[in-house]
Amino acid sequence: MTSRVPALLDRWAMSLLSDDPRLLILARQVTAATGAPVVGGIAVFLHGYRRTTADIDLLAAAPRETAAVLEKLGATWDEQHREHVLDGVPIHLVTLDQAGGPPQEIVRIQGVAAVSLRDLVRQKLRTGLDRPDRAQDLADVVELIRHVPLDKRFASRLPKTLRVPFKKLVDAVRDAPRSE
Protein backbone atom coordinates (compact mmCIF):
# COMPACT_ATOMS: atom_id res chain seq x y z
CA MET A 1 0.00 0.00 0.00
CA THR A 2 1.13 3.50 -0.68
CA SER A 3 1.60 6.16 1.96
CA ARG A 4 -1.61 7.89 0.82
CA VAL A 5 -3.69 5.00 2.12
CA PRO A 6 -5.32 6.09 5.38
CA ALA A 7 -5.81 3.88 8.41
CA LEU A 8 -9.42 3.26 7.35
CA LEU A 9 -8.19 1.49 4.23
CA ASP A 10 -5.85 -0.64 6.30
CA ARG A 11 -8.90 -1.82 8.23
CA TRP A 12 -10.82 -2.50 5.02
CA ALA A 13 -7.90 -4.45 3.53
CA MET A 14 -7.41 -6.56 6.61
CA SER A 15 -11.15 -7.16 6.80
CA LEU A 16 -10.87 -9.59 3.88
CA LEU A 17 -9.04 -11.90 6.23
CA SER A 18 -11.40 -11.45 9.18
CA ASP A 19 -14.71 -12.97 10.17
CA ASP A 20 -16.40 -9.68 9.19
CA PRO A 21 -15.23 -9.06 5.61
CA ARG A 22 -16.30 -5.42 5.19
CA LEU A 23 -14.53 -5.07 1.86
CA LEU A 24 -16.40 -8.10 0.51
CA ILE A 25 -19.67 -6.62 1.76
CA LEU A 26 -18.94 -3.41 -0.14
CA ALA A 27 -17.85 -5.39 -3.23
CA ARG A 28 -21.12 -7.35 -3.05
CA GLN A 29 -23.11 -4.09 -2.96
CA VAL A 30 -21.13 -2.46 -5.76
CA THR A 31 -21.28 -5.46 -8.11
CA ALA A 32 -25.01 -5.90 -7.48
CA ALA A 33 -25.72 -2.23 -8.23
CA THR A 34 -23.45 -1.87 -11.27
CA GLY A 35 -23.62 -5.34 -12.78
CA ALA A 36 -19.85 -5.08 -13.21
CA PRO A 37 -17.76 -8.01 -11.93
CA VAL A 38 -14.66 -7.62 -9.79
CA VAL A 39 -11.19 -8.23 -11.14
CA GLY A 40 -7.94 -7.60 -9.31
CA GLY A 41 -7.18 -8.44 -5.71
CA ILE A 42 -10.73 -9.21 -4.62
CA ALA A 43 -11.19 -11.63 -7.54
CA VAL A 44 -7.87 -13.28 -6.68
CA PHE A 45 -9.03 -13.59 -3.06
CA LEU A 46 -12.39 -15.05 -4.06
CA HIS A 47 -10.79 -17.58 -6.39
CA GLY A 48 -8.56 -19.03 -3.71
CA TYR A 49 -5.50 -16.98 -2.85
CA ARG A 50 -6.22 -15.22 0.42
CA ARG A 51 -4.37 -11.95 0.05
CA THR A 52 -5.14 -8.45 1.19
CA THR A 53 -6.20 -5.59 -1.00
CA ALA A 54 -7.40 -2.10 -0.24
CA ASP A 55 -9.48 -1.34 -3.33
CA ILE A 56 -12.18 -2.67 -5.60
CA ASP A 57 -11.39 -3.13 -9.28
CA LEU A 58 -14.49 -3.40 -11.46
CA LEU A 59 -14.52 -4.59 -15.05
CA ALA A 60 -16.66 -1.90 -16.66
CA ALA A 61 -17.92 -2.63 -20.16
CA ALA A 62 -19.63 0.76 -20.04
CA PRO A 63 -17.41 2.95 -17.82
CA ARG A 64 -19.58 6.08 -17.94
CA GLU A 65 -22.71 4.19 -16.97
CA THR A 66 -20.85 2.30 -14.24
CA ALA A 67 -19.45 5.58 -12.89
CA ALA A 68 -22.95 7.07 -12.82
CA VAL A 69 -24.25 4.12 -10.79
CA LEU A 70 -21.32 4.42 -8.37
CA GLU A 71 -22.12 8.10 -7.90
CA LYS A 72 -25.77 7.25 -7.19
CA LEU A 73 -24.48 4.89 -4.49
CA GLY A 74 -22.64 7.83 -2.94
CA ALA A 75 -19.17 7.39 -4.44
CA THR A 76 -17.21 10.54 -5.13
CA TRP A 77 -14.64 11.11 -7.86
CA ASP A 78 -11.09 11.72 -6.65
CA GLU A 79 -9.56 13.67 -9.53
CA GLN A 80 -6.03 13.54 -8.12
CA HIS A 81 -5.94 9.71 -7.97
CA ARG A 82 -8.38 9.18 -10.86
CA GLU A 83 -10.64 6.86 -8.90
CA HIS A 84 -14.02 6.74 -7.27
CA VAL A 85 -14.16 6.48 -3.48
CA LEU A 86 -17.04 4.89 -1.58
CA ASP A 87 -16.99 4.58 2.21
CA GLY A 88 -13.27 5.38 2.12
CA VAL A 89 -12.50 2.60 -0.39
CA PRO A 90 -11.00 3.38 -3.81
CA ILE A 91 -12.90 1.89 -6.74
CA HIS A 92 -11.11 1.55 -10.06
CA LEU A 93 -12.87 0.99 -13.35
CA VAL A 94 -10.99 -1.41 -15.61
CA THR A 95 -12.01 -1.16 -19.25
CA LEU A 96 -12.40 -4.14 -21.56
CA ASP A 97 -9.31 -2.95 -23.47
CA GLN A 98 -7.27 -2.89 -20.26
CA ALA A 99 -8.53 -6.38 -19.39
CA GLY A 100 -7.71 -7.80 -22.82
CA GLY A 101 -11.34 -8.18 -23.84
CA PRO A 102 -14.64 -9.19 -22.31
CA PRO A 103 -14.85 -12.08 -19.87
CA GLN A 104 -16.14 -15.40 -21.15
CA GLU A 105 -17.92 -16.00 -17.87
CA ILE A 106 -18.99 -14.14 -14.76
CA VAL A 107 -19.37 -16.17 -11.57
CA ARG A 108 -20.79 -15.39 -8.15
CA ILE A 109 -18.59 -16.20 -5.18
CA GLN A 110 -19.72 -15.27 -1.68
CA GLY A 111 -22.37 -13.10 -3.32
CA VAL A 112 -19.83 -11.05 -5.30
CA ALA A 113 -19.90 -11.02 -9.10
CA ALA A 114 -16.39 -11.86 -10.33
CA VAL A 115 -14.75 -12.83 -13.60
CA SER A 116 -14.17 -16.57 -13.88
CA LEU A 117 -10.86 -18.08 -12.86
CA ARG A 118 -9.98 -18.59 -16.54
CA ASP A 119 -10.68 -14.92 -17.32
CA LEU A 120 -8.81 -13.74 -14.23
CA VAL A 121 -5.69 -15.78 -15.04
CA ARG A 122 -5.85 -14.67 -18.67
CA GLN A 123 -6.06 -11.01 -17.71
CA LYS A 124 -3.42 -11.19 -14.98
CA LEU A 125 -1.00 -13.18 -17.13
CA ARG A 126 -1.42 -10.93 -20.18
CA THR A 127 -1.00 -7.74 -18.14
CA GLY A 128 1.95 -9.08 -16.16
CA LEU A 129 3.79 -10.23 -19.27
CA ASP A 130 3.10 -7.03 -21.21
CA ARG A 131 3.88 -4.55 -18.43
CA PRO A 132 6.92 -5.06 -16.20
CA ASP A 133 5.54 -2.44 -13.81
CA ARG A 134 2.62 -4.83 -13.11
CA ALA A 135 4.63 -7.60 -11.44
CA GLN A 136 1.80 -8.08 -8.92
CA ASP A 137 -0.29 -9.58 -11.72
CA LEU A 138 2.28 -12.34 -12.34
CA ALA A 139 2.63 -12.82 -8.58
CA ASP A 140 -1.14 -13.32 -8.37
CA VAL A 141 -1.00 -16.01 -11.08
CA VAL A 142 1.85 -17.74 -9.24
CA GLU A 143 -0.13 -17.74 -6.01
CA LEU A 144 -3.27 -19.03 -7.74
CA ILE A 145 -1.15 -21.86 -9.20
CA ARG A 146 -0.01 -22.66 -5.65
CA HIS A 147 -3.25 -22.23 -3.75
CA VAL A 148 -6.09 -23.30 -6.05
CA PRO A 149 -3.97 -25.32 -7.17
CA LEU A 150 -3.63 -25.06 -10.93
CA ASP A 151 -1.52 -27.32 -13.12
CA LYS A 152 -0.48 -27.41 -16.77
CA ARG A 153 -3.86 -28.79 -17.82
CA PHE A 154 -5.36 -25.38 -17.02
CA ALA A 155 -3.33 -23.93 -19.92
CA SER A 156 -5.80 -25.45 -22.40
CA ARG A 157 -8.40 -22.99 -21.06
CA LEU A 158 -6.21 -20.00 -21.96
CA PRO A 159 -5.59 -18.33 -25.33
CA LYS A 160 -2.86 -20.10 -27.29
CA THR A 161 -0.45 -17.18 -26.87
CA LEU A 162 -0.58 -17.54 -23.07
CA ARG A 163 -0.30 -21.32 -22.77
CA VAL A 164 3.50 -21.59 -22.89
CA PRO A 165 4.09 -18.74 -20.41
CA PHE A 166 1.50 -20.25 -18.06
CA LYS A 167 3.14 -23.69 -18.24
CA LYS A 168 6.53 -22.10 -17.52
CA LEU A 169 5.07 -20.49 -14.41
CA VAL A 170 3.62 -23.83 -13.31
CA ASP A 171 7.06 -25.42 -13.75
CA ALA A 172 8.72 -22.59 -11.83
CA VAL A 173 6.23 -22.93 -8.97
CA ARG A 174 6.55 -26.72 -8.82
CA ASP A 175 10.37 -26.61 -9.02
CA ALA A 176 10.79 -23.86 -6.42
CA PRO A 177 12.05 -24.98 -3.04
CA ARG A 178 9.36 -24.80 -0.38
CA SER A 179 9.94 -22.64 2.64
CA GLU A 180 8.60 -24.01 5.87
Descriptive notes:
The protein is α+β, with helices and mostly antiparallel strands and 180 residues long. The protein has two domains: 115 residues, Beta Polymerase, domain 2; 65 residues. It has eight helices and seven strands, in the order H-H-E-H-E-H-E-E-E-H-E-E-H-H-H. It is elongated and about 50 Å long. The chain starts with 6 loop residues before the first helix and ends in a 5-residue tail after the last helix. The N terminus is likely disordered.
Q: Characteristics of this structure?
A:
single chain; 180 residues; alpha+beta; Beta Polymerase, domain 2; 2 domains; two-stranded antiparallel ribbon; 8 helices; 15% strand
CATH fold description of the largest domain:
Beta Polymerase, domain 2
* Helical amount: 40-55%
**Whole-number radius of gyration?**
16 Å
Distance between the termini: 26 Å
Name the CATH class of the largest domain: Alpha Beta
Per the principal axes of the C-alpha atoms, what is the gross shape? elongated
For the biggest sheet, the summary is:
5 strands, mixed
SSE-based structural type: alpha+beta
Question: Kindly state the mean pLDDT as a whole number?
Answer: 90
Number of strands: 7
Assigned CATH architecture of the largest domain: 2-Layer Sandwich
Question: Which spans of ≥5 residues are poorly predicted at pLDDT below 50?
Answer: 1-5
List the helices and strands and how they pair.
Blueprint: H1 7-15, H2 22-34, E1 38-39, H3 40-46, E2 56-59, H4 63-72, E3 76-78, E4 83-86, E5 89-94, H5 96-99, E6 106-109, E7 112-115, H6 117-130, H7 135-147, H8 160-175
Parallel strand pairs: 2-5
Antiparallel strand pairs: 1-2, 3-4, 4-5, 6-7
Helix pairs in contact: 6-7, 7-8
